[in-house]
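Forwarding the complex inputs:
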Amino acid sequence: LCPGCDFLFPQASRMFAQCPQRCVSSVVLIALLCCLLSSPVEASKSSEDIRCKCICPPYRNVSGHIYNRNVSQKDCTCLHVVQPMPVPGSDVEAYCLLCECKYEERSTTTIKVIIIIYLSVVGALLLYMAFLVLVDPLIRKPDAYSQPLHNQEENEDARSLAAAPVVPGGRANTVLERVEGAQQRWKRQVQEQRKTVFDRHKMLS
Amino acid sequence: MDQKSYRRGSFQSSTSDEDMLEIAGASLDFTMADDDPPLDREMGGFSSYNGGGLTGSSLVMDFLEEPLPGVGTYEDFNTIDWVREKSRDRDRHREITSRSKESTWALIHSVSDAFSGWLLMLLIGLLAGSLAGLIDISAHWMTDLKEGVCLAGFWFNHEHCCWKSNTTFTDRDKCPEWMSWSQLILGHGEGAFAYILNYLMYVVWALLFSLLAVLLVKGFAPYACGSGIPEIKTILSGFIIRGYLGKWTLIIKTITLVLAVSSGLSLGKEGPLVHVACCCGNILCHLFTKYRKNEAKRREVLSAAAAAGVSVAFGAPIGGVLFSLEEVSYYFPLKTLWRSFFAALVAAFTLRSINPFGNSRLVLFYVEFHMPWHLLELVPFILLGIFGGLWGAFFIRSNIAWCRRRKTTRLGRYPVLEVLVVTAITALLAFPNEYSRMSTSELISELFNDCGVLDSSQLCEYVNDFNSTKGDDLPDRAAGPGVYTAMWQLALALVMKVFITIFTFGMKVPSGLFIPSMAVGAIAGRLLGVAMEQLAFYHHDWAIFSGWCSQGADCITPGLYAMVGAAACLGGVTRMTVSLVVIMFELTGGLEYIVPLMAAAMTSKWVADAIGREGIYDAHIRLNGYPFLEAKEEFSHKTLAMDVMRPRRSDPPLTVITQDSMTVEDVETIINETTYSGYPVVVSRESQRLVGFVLRRDLIISIENARKKQDGIVSTSIIYFTDHSPPLPPSSPSMLKLRSILDLSPFTVTDQTPMEIVVDIFRKLGLRQCLVTHNGKLLGIITKKDVLKHIAQLANQDPDSILFN
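Prediction (whole assembly, two chains):
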């Protein structure tokens, strides 16, 4: 991965080399993290993202008003922002003392990126769930083991049958078979967790 | 004799390292943990990590000197051996230090080993902060999605949609870009039909979100439901729950937390954020050998991660560290304190740079007022404390009763339906009332806010006398009609929240408790504050008010009452002390308010403790039967070790292994017939003098490995634990030396030791089991489960409720 990593974390980098599957998730997480961090850093301050907001309360016979302008922070004062000034010149100072002006910044890129990431992850999870419930049983017809959501009526026999390794003999060599094996293991794990939490109520009430 | 489950694995196994785990023992289903593998592929790293047995010098002769993968790891739902883990870490550290003098690479390796802890904290802080930012921004957007959509870009929530446009002073929410659903569908937003349409859309969205949440939890990661803090407390005390802090749990918890919060349910996200942060910690531990292989070191990292979680939830790094210290962690070495603070700070800084609230603030309800308070106000503050304590005790009792009903009756078989029904009821009741319709964080923010000239909300509709306005400082004024409306609406919201939270906490979606409790307290506090304010205004000539609250003075701040109420209710439910006060004053930034906060927190804790001893998390631990040895309670009974040890008088004698006279077949028989997690090793059955203690899992793995890999090991081979093999005729089969898996220094107490000392030993050292001797001979064994059952029995609780091992 990176040349310095090898001598700083010899065992970690050996682990990275040996088992790409396990570490893909960690790498993906860290990549996601860098994405999230870099977007606010890189986002230039477009005019859409800054504003100076002045709130002025009701004063004598002038009603309350909120003023919004995109000016820089040093110009964020009542005199620059409150235009047109509703009170005559002699009262401006008293009026401006009542107004409160705040400089605010936001990053629309960050918001957009995060919402899109979130929706895509939810969409991906829903698609995967639909796949597991609908498509997977059709592919895996010979296996008696395929219903991740309907847990109640599990046979102990069906489970013990499925406990035999899917790949016949030897080590799973191709990537696809390794992914298969990992997926089967994961499904079994979720099955166990579901049993513990939902059926036997052993954990998490 | 049922050997089926044991033997079957050994015939069918292939030669891969993974299968070694699957054959070991009858009920090892849980160890097929993809994301939390107890094994590492490399064999060589373990050289001096034995169970305290060897010093590593005699390496040559024995095949089994090289420890096998799997030896020294733990099964799921078991307790770790703190002593062994700590001594392994010390051995590892000694080895690295001694080798660092040999070459430059080794020196760099030792330096990087020392730095790895800090780098890990940095990574945890970054990841936890980023995830918290993602959760905050998404939750805000989705909460507003129930009410309408932004035309300028669907990803904006209401506040950001109206950011650029000019809103009016009185109606700060309306802007042309934001359309409510009725406006979008019907074209106009007024009228009864539009109201009903809005109502319907609100309920439909709420149901959709919660349905998605519970389906995702059920389908992908059932461990992601609930708050997470009771289970994390148990894990940090030494329990193993594989998969609880894994990557699928992390992903699902993050996603479904947003969905659950957005669906309008009466729950918060602080507790689940602690779980999310601990998952990050656990996952990142896998990058560093030092933490991946050692369960005790990993728990130090998890303590720090929990601190980072609370820090991003509240924007309170110090409060987070104290929360981790007080509530979550079991053993908290001082080294962890500094590192936790670092992780919490990095997390808070990361969250601030993502800037979810547009103002560089960390929390939605950051208040900035600094009005002074008067000593006489301590009376209402103490009243609020009493209310908080009463409510806390009531909530804990009812919630535990409801959760127990869910656990034992048919109610627990319909989790999805339960979530949908609760969401429907919450949405139907919440929409009509403006204060329950808004998200709970916004409600708290508004209640904490002190009414000034610039506010125009209904709660701040006081009768203003413009002539006496002196700048920003408004005096106490008479309440206008808006305030009265707000008061009864708030009272209705209070009643609703008090009852609906009981049914919400503990459902099968991620649910936290902090925000709902703070909301209940804030509403009660604000009601009392406004009442006090009006009392002082209308009766400013009474003796108690005349001294400090004359007419025209600004003396009562209802926002402060809301804060104190929130602290009181939170303290009543969770029984936090220092961490609560620190979190609250980090939220407000004002040191002036420490005394009222402390007064309310202490009062609520005393009142709640008088009614029921446990906080909500301890109550849930007891409900689920986790093997958690409470560190704060004193054991005050006069029983002795021999009253608790096993075997009892009526039981068969203790199952032991002799040091050099049992065959492989004998040992396998013992393993198959009993289910103990370890066996004492004695010199001989007659003398019963103790040699050491050997764990079941290590025995199984070693014997299986020896049968396959070592020459000449058959069922009649003798197993010996001594240094030199016993003398036998040359025609006997080759012997199996298992000294490397023997723990030569097990903890022993005599049978006359008082149980208070035994409980103290278990707590302070983190033991799993302790052997009992009499006159130097082995008499029995006390395990942690026995201790817990004994405590439960003496407290008149059901000792059979202690599940797990």
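Residues 104-145 of chain B form the longest helix (42 residues).
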